[in-house]
Amino acid sequence: MSAKPIVFQKISDMRRAVAQWRAAGETVALIPTMGALHAGHVSLLEASRGKARRAIVSIFVNPTQFAPDEDFSAYPRRLEADLARLAEAGCDGCFAPDASEMYPAGFSTKVIPGGPALAGLEDRFRTDHFAGVAQVVAKLLNQAQADCAFFGEKDFQQLAVIRRMAADLDIPTKIFGVPTMREADGLAMSSRNAYLSPEERARAATLSRVLRASAEKIAAGAPVGEVMAQGAREIEAAGFALDYFEARHAESLAPAASRADGAIRLLVAARLGRTRLIDNWAVK
């Protein structure tokens, strides 16, 4: 097994390492995560190798992006297993701060995103979520001062929010999106998949199946509204409680009524038992 990555618990220690790498002429990538790492996270690390010589994965379960009724305390935390996985993947450093390092006494600044953060998708159900995401990502980008950062496309609205925030705040780190990693049956990889019962797991891939079929129908010229209505019925018939199933412009996330509106992304969020799943698919 490869050596474990250097673990930084203090911002100053991470910045010192980044400065040393930079002094040696090396570029640096940041991969922000909340831990419970799976193959999807590793794909972000692998994608970074084409853009940077060094890579830092941050592991921080950010309390400010969880609503009071969400699973902050239950969110899986397994740092040693995550470090072992990062060692196998050849990661250089892991930033694993305590909450007091990220939000010390007296911390009082907020980042309030607009634009794609108010698209009427996740923000309809998780009111303060993107403010928490924008806050912690802005801090991580500033703390690491990396050349580039990598985020999964599974959280597509989140990726749009981060890109807009980085551009609006003149953060020089280049933001890259990485295609969603999927299980053999098409289910998007997620730490929350572990909450699914065996029977729920057998039905969960309905989301990706309907997304793909709907995208293919729209690409073939079928009316967007009819395709989305049919897809919603199929998802609900499989036992999901549907939050949304939407066709949106791939960049602005504005509603898309036809392909004449530009590139389209289909986005879905639905609950299966106690587990809320999200996914998306491009219309090509």
CATH class of the largest domain: Alpha Beta
CATH-defined topology of the largest domain = Rossmann fold
Alpha-carbon distance between the two ends: 41 Å
Shape call: globular
- Can you list the strand order of the major beta sheet? 1-4-3-2-5-6
Number of strands: 9
The average pLDDT is 96
Supply the CATH architecture of the largest domain.
Answer: 3-Layer(aba) Sandwich
| C-alpha Rg (nearest Å) | 19 Å
Structural class: alpha/beta
Order of helices and strands: EHEHEHEHHHEHEHHHEEE
Output the number of helix runs. Answer: 10
| DSSP helix fraction | 25-40%
Kindly give the count of domains. 2
Largest sheet: 6 strands, parallel
Percent range for β-strand residues: 15-25%
Fourth CATH level, the homologous superfamily of the largest domain: HUPs
Low-confidence stretches: none
Summarize the entry for a quick read:
The protein is of the alpha/beta class. 37% of the residues lie in helices and 19% in strands.
Task: From the structure above, extract its key features.
three-stranded antiparallel sheet, 2 domains, 284 residues, globular, Pantoate--beta-alanine Ligase, Chain: A,domain 2, alpha/beta, six-stranded parallel sheet, Rossmann fold, 10 helices
Question: Would you spell out the secondary-structure blueprint of this structure?
Answer:
Blueprint: E1 6-8, H1 11-23, E2 28-33, H2 39-48, E3 54-59, H3 79-89, E4 93-95, H4 99-102, H5 122-125, H6 129-144, E5 148-152, H7 156-168, E6 174-178, H8 198-204, H9 206-219, H10 224-237, E7 241-249, E8 264-272, E9 275-282
Parallel strand pairs: 1-4, 2-3, 2-5, 3-4, 5-6
Antiparallel strand pairs: 7-8, 8-9
Helix pairs in contact: 6-7, 9-10
